[in-house]
Design a protein that fits this description.
The protein has a single domain (2-246), classed as Spore Coat Polysaccharide Biosynthesis Protein SpsA, Chain A, CATH 3.90.550. Helices cover 47% and strands 12% of the residues. It has helices at 10-23, 41-51, 66-76, 93-97, 121-138, 153-157, 168-178, 203-246; strands at residues 2-3, 30-35, 55-60, 81-82, 108-113, 150-152, 183-188. It has a four-stranded mixed β-sheet. The protein has a three-stranded parallel β-sheet with strand order 1-2-3, sandwiched between helices. β1, α1 and β2 form a beta-alpha-beta unit. The termini are far apart.
Length: 251
């Protein structure tokens, strides 16, 4: 659970997550990554860790980014299944954990928001453009890539490349799906943020998205070039072999 200056939301977010996991009888731990908060977020998290050993905190001395917070959680997790739930208490944990058993059949469960009316028009328009760019560029067909995705931790540990910014989860999903891992998309009802302002839509996040996007584009261009070169080389080798076999050298 990444948290940055969420003193008004963090305890409710943790409490709801604990309650949802207990309701679904899922064995769990919660790793709260305090991403360099300047308010009382860290103090409030510490209060809960003293009451419940299943809650742990991993603090950043400076703000490292939501992607870095996610990967710190993955690296310190002990379970086989991981997800992330923001500390802003906007996401309803009951919505994603009801799909937990789907992981008996797939490797990734990807939620998509169906009650988009709870978000402003600008945010929905931005999401539409984002989704169009991603799906068109990488030849995928995701409905949403920035939700509380459920992952098998083993497939995350296989990835050598890690994005530390806002683009982190889109990067993960594209890489893992291209590797052939199975996924399921499921409908998900989003709540309304009661306190504070979202940090997802701002200039620094846009810059990190742009950097992450072009970094992944370069990877796929290089991979495509290698595949094309291999195919062309194989074609010429096959042709040369056929020519030689049909015209054996004379003694």
């Amino acid at each position: 659970m990444p948290a940055l200056n969420e003193e008004k939301n963090i305890q409710a977010a943790i409490h709801n997550t604990v309650q949802a996991l207990e309701d679904y009888k899922i064995k769990f731990e919660i790793i709260v990554v305090n991403d360099g908060s300047k308010d009382k977020t860290g103090e409030l998290i510490e209060q809960l860790t003293k009451k419940d050993a299943r809650i742990r905190v991993f603090p950043h001395t400076i703000t490292a980014g939501i992607g870095a917070s996610f990967w710190d959680g993955v690296d310190n997790a002990q379970g086989d299944i991981v997800t992330w739930i923001p500390g802003d208490n906007e996401n309803n944990p009951w919505e994603i954990f009801r799909y937990y058993k789907l992981l008996e059949h797939v490797d990734i469960v990807i939620p998509f928001i169906f009650n988009r009316e709870v978000r402003p028009f600008f945010r929905n328009a931005l999401s539409f453009v984002y989704r169009f760019i991603i799906n068109t560029t990488f030849a995928v067909n995701f409905n949403y890539t920035n939700g509380t995705v459920l992952f098998r931790r083993s497939i995350l540990k296989e990835l050598s490349a890690r994005n530390h910014g806002f683009f982190f989860q889109t990067d993960i999903l594209i890489r893992t799906v291209k590797k052939g891992y199975l996924f399921a998309e499921v409908p998900y009802r989003l709540g309304v943020r009661k306190e504070g302002v979202s940090k997802a839509v701002n200039f620094p996040s846009l810059l990190k998205f742009t950097k992450g996007y072009f970094s992944l584009v370069r990877v796929f261009i290089l991979l495509s070039f290698c595949l094309i070169s291999f195919s062309v080389g194989s074609f010429f080798l096959y042709s040369a072999t056929n020519i030689l076999s049909s015209n054996p050298p004379r003694a």
